[in-house]
Amino acid sequence: MTDTYLITGGMGCIGAWALYHLLQDGKQVVNFDQSTDTHRLDWLMSPEEQEKITFVQGDLRDTNAVKAVFADNNITHVIHLAALQVPMCRANPVLGAQVNVVGTVNIFEAARERELKNVAYASSIAVYGPPSDYPPGLIAHDAPKTPRTLYGAYKVANETTAEIYFNDYGIASTALRPYTVYGVGRDQGMTSEPTKALLAVAKGESYSINFGGEMQFHFASDVARQFILASEQSLGGAHVFNMGQQPKSVTEFVDIVKTIVPSASVDVADTTLPFPMGFDDSELRNHFDTIYETPLADGIQQTLDHVKKLGDKI
């Protein structure tokens, strides 16, 4: 049977990159998304390349629709990325729970019905609390989950759901918790400011990033490739991994930008986000031989080059 990869939320940043890489690898791909906005795909691939994608517009809350996309397309690999982000969950908690929690249950149910044995899905560092909840340094992979947002609480629920589906039905899963994802396509969300700054610099405009502090930066392309690997390599359990790399300050990020583009005009606010500076990724490294981690300077350079190449298209 031909391998067919299902991406939920392929119109989002990481999803678009996952579709891009899978197509580059000659894979058969299906995108399940409520959105029909292809602007991020347009930034990564040509219309001819997009024609190779099977697009299914649907709602994660609809159990039958989710099961149908698995059955109708003979799905063999699952990368579940679709979710409502922090502000939308705060504004509409019921909808947030329906999409983020019930939607994830629907994915696992569809996988169970099709007798799939592995699911890759997105969790978040939002499952953790503020720095005051933890000792200094990187947060351990098994540190207590003390979320302060509904979005984080929903992600905790999903991680628990995955454990039950493995214990009761034998469906293995791997979840990844990225921190600050940057790169082409990262144009919304709480930590999208560094990428928006790069877009402004590429266009010769000034920009003010509205937070500072230290954090871990993940190149969007790398995150997508790690999710693809997680969908292909079953670890035989319900695993959740922090994504790491050396924490960098937002000021360091901007300093790199200014080294590449000396004329760049980017300011950084003193405000910090309510998250620890970084998370220990040793468990991820213990379980996967391949870790995708483009050096920050290279990722920034690639993003600037990509944006300049797109010109007025972005």
Can you lay out the helices and strands and say which pair or pack?
Layout: E1 4-8, H1 13-24, E2 28-33, H2 39-44, H3 47-50, E3 53-57, H4 63-72, E4 77-80, H5 86-91, H6 93-113, E5 118-122, H7 150-169, E6 172-177, E7 180-182, H8 193-202, E8 207-209, E9 214-215, E10 217-219, H9 220-232, E11 238-242, E12 248-249, H10 250-260, E13 266-268, H11 282-287, H12 296-310
Parallel strand pairs: 1-2, 1-4, 2-3, 4-5, 5-6, 6-11, 7-10, 8-13
Antiparallel strand pairs: 9-12
The number of strands is 13
Helix content percent band:
40-55%
Radius of gyration: 19 Å
At the fourth level of CATH, the homologous superfamily is NAD(P)-binding Rossmann-like Domain
Count of discrete domains = 1
Summary keywords:
13 strands, alpha/beta, Rossmann fold, two-stranded parallel sheet, 314 residues, 7-stranded parallel β-sheet, 12 helices, single chain
Describe the structure.
- The relative contact order is 0.14.
- The longest helix has 21 residues, at 93-113.
- A seven-stranded parallel β-sheet has the order 3-2-1-4-5-6-11, sandwiched between helices. A two-stranded parallel ribbon has the order 7-10.
- It has a single domain (4-313), classed as NAD(P)-binding Rossmann-like Domain (Rossmann fold, 3-Layer(aba) Sandwich), CATH 3.40.50.
- Helix 7 links the parallel strand 5 and strand 6 (172-177).
- By secondary structure, it is an alpha/beta fold.
- The chain is built from twelve helices and 13 strands.
